[in-house]
């Protein structure tokens, strides 16, 4: 056989081989694509400004789920803060095809959507497929998130830890004015420091950096049964009362009014929403909910290094705190077990949590000594707290190390000051007073933003109390008391 013929045959065989190889690769790719398309997809609704790179992050998550043999893919959708609650309610009413949704006592709200049958009862499902979730949560948290003894959402709380109320300080001014932040326990204690900074810092117009959602707190924390009605324990008996007429609360309101009159609070505060407050060097102190290791998150939010101190001597574990952030499964979902599997992974898989909360390494953040350093121009900047397993999140570079003696001491002190609410697990049934409850809520909505920011006078406050009476708050208190008297308190 001559050389030309050998080359021709060789070329033919190579060509055939390449063709077969190409066909095989193409077939495999097509089969892989088809298999991927046939996988069930879990649709996850979350609150937060829609991000440009969400699609890329979801692709990366799905590749990661494939490597982990999850057997399903994720479809993550964000809805703006102002529209999320209505969007979730409409989706639930219309029977939209979603599987997991963020919810909270302030978003949904959780209890209302449970009563409407929107969320699945996951009590038994967590026992079967949610071991990592159960390992992360204390009995108090599970009890506080339950309704009539059943659980309808996975709470976002590390073991024994619920959000506490903190004063968050601009560290530069704390250092400059040598402020002993640990001595400050109430908003009244803030006054000398607010005065000093306002008088001496040209860039600080309003040192008390609060907006309309200010966390109003009494020295003895209230346990709310329903908006407008709180419960206290006296001599072993639970007593329902008008929370807004409480003398302790009125003292706090008067302090806020005094601060507004003295120019410590922005006059526009009643019209300002979360995220509208001052940043950088334009404020001294604010108030926020978080944990003993939240300084890094707050520093990132305020674009300034902050430090924090507990606002008060104790943190009460209430139903409200246990339901401050949850993930619920659609009662109509065809993929309840897969949805629970995904939630369980969020409590056990740090890499998955990094994708969800920070995006793609090298595109949205860098890992520096085991911590996340977010890019300033990231196109995936989402509210990480909505993704449940905060103790499973990789810390930011601005966060202190959690394994230092100082950090452990802060955590131990926080845990020592936790105390269960006397009505933990009590869920008020408002059916018999639906009209009064709705009227009271509407009245509070109309007045509370001004009250909580100090933008009121005595006539305004009295007018508010009178309207609560007209709305039927006495009947509401009576019904809460009746249910408390018949509650099997375990």
UniProtKB/TrEMBL annotation:
Protein's name in the database: Extracellular solute-binding protein family 1
Domain DUF3502: 422-487
Pfam families: DUF3502, SBP_bac_8
Domain of life: Bacteria
Gene3D superfamilies linked: Periplasmic binding protein-like II
Alphabetical keyword list: Signal
Signal peptide (UniProt feature, chain positions): 1-25
